[in-house]
Fold this sequence. Notes:
By secondary structure, the chain is an alpha+beta fold. It has helices spanning 2-27, 30-33, 39-49, 88-96, 138-147, 180-184, 189-199, 242-342, 347-373, 386-403, 429-445, 501-511, and strands at 58-63, 68-71, 100-106, 112-121, 128-137, 157-162, 167-169, 204-209, 215-225, 228-238, 382-385, 410-416, 424-427, 450-458, 465-471, 516-520, 527-534. A five-stranded antiparallel sheet has the order 2-1-5-4-3, with helices on both faces. It has a five-stranded antiparallel sheet with strand order 7-6-10-9-8, sandwiched between helices. Strand 4 and strand 5 form a beta hairpin. The mean pLDDT is 82.
Amino acid sequence: xxxxxxxxxxxxxxxxxxxxxxxxxxxxxxxxxxxxxxxxxxxxxxxxxxxxxxxxxxxxxxxxxxxxxxxxxxxxxxxxxxxxxxxxxxxxxxxxxxxxxxxxxxxxxxxxxxxxxxxxxxxxxxxxxxxxxxxxxxxxxxxxxxxxxxxxxxxxxxxxxxxxxxxxxxxxxxxxxxxxxxxxxxxxxxxxxxxxxxxxxxxxxxxxxxxxxxxxxxxxxxxxxxxxxxxxxxxxxxxxxxxxxxxxxxxxxxxxxxxxxxxxxxxxxxxxxxxxxxxxxxxxxxxxxxxxxxxxxxxxxxxxxxxxxxxxxxxxxxxxxxxxxxxxxxxxxxxxxxxxxxxxxxxxxxxxxxxxxxxxxxxxxxxxxxxxxxxxxxxxxxxxxxxxxxxxxxxxxxxxxxxxxxxxxxxxxxxxxxxxxxxxxxxxxxxxxxxxxxxxxxxxxxxxxxxxxxxxxxxxxxxxxxxxxxxxxxxxxxxxxxxxxxxxxxxxxxxxxxxxxxxxxxxxxxxxxxxxxxxxxxxxxxxxxxxxxxxxx
Length: 537
């Protein structure tokens, strides 16, 4: 009886080792390491569970943070993505960082279970990337042992006992968690000595008188995992049935050997299947790598050509701007002279003068853009009264609007909420005038009627900055250009402007250490351009 019991219990250790090898094989597969999102990875885990249903409840895959990525248990698929970082098998895998038999622990359905697990490492082989675990209810191990026992006139008792003597598996759940010595209420010295030898990893047999007065035979044998003593199995049966018990175990031993051979064949077929998939995937990846490399080379060549063309374009624009500026200034001076000689009411001279000034402004803007790109853009800072600067810019745009007969129904209002002591800042006066002129000119061009309001106030988020707001009641900002509003050649509407003004405004404001942005007008129509400047006082 002792020999057959040892063989039956040894089969449990063999099954655990087989499960462990299959889990380790799956955990180290490149298919799994490439991500659980792939169909091949899910097929791999489902295939790993095949043939282990007698013991394994589910194959579970947690990532490095303990989040559930996949499970073969259909009832738990809706919990994918949940946090399992407090589970014993995850904590033991992260701590031990090697394949182990973890547990016992309670699963979601309150089943006492253990787990054969293997950590999943990153492709470098050094960092913890998660854990792959086979969840095994202890009752399935008890049932498997029970199936190998012969029928008896009395009830067989099967205990699974941890190395500290705690009962972790038994048909009666009330006994789980109790100590084996307390359960047997041992008074016999021989029985007590055998139980001590059992939890130390020995095997043996002894007889004892049960509480009901029946004489029983107890056989115990250690369960090993990876060569180490993990638990012990204690089987008791009526003494009169010991021979039958041994005979059935012998028959079950043959069955177990055949089952192990079949499992080995199944595992070999599975491994061949996995290797074939790996080989095919590697070939696909190699082809894709070649295609990607060729595409990268083509993109690099195209980028270099575009860079060279962009450089040539900038040089051409810079030269063109310089060349345009040379004849424009004499045209402006000559037109102004003609205006004085002939009279300012000559419309043809006004057209010449207006367009010559527009060309001059455009060339100046282009040259400023060129200085910004070449990092030669410099500020000439001085103490400046920001209120007076705004008033001068409003006067200039009002004069220009009147001279060109633009929008006679449009008004420009200015309001300052700064005390006199806060009006002076250190800034480049001419450049800030350029910013204000651009923003006001934009507001005039895009507003047919109503009021353009310029306000000066202290920035609410940072009192060391002043804030200037230019609000109009015009058409507002085209949604298609809003994300690129302050880029070159982009205007607030697709219909007007060169798109350099706002780009230069942004460069000038940021060169002063401020910020500029645009928002919708709170009155329901139009837009508001806001920029901040440090006081530096």
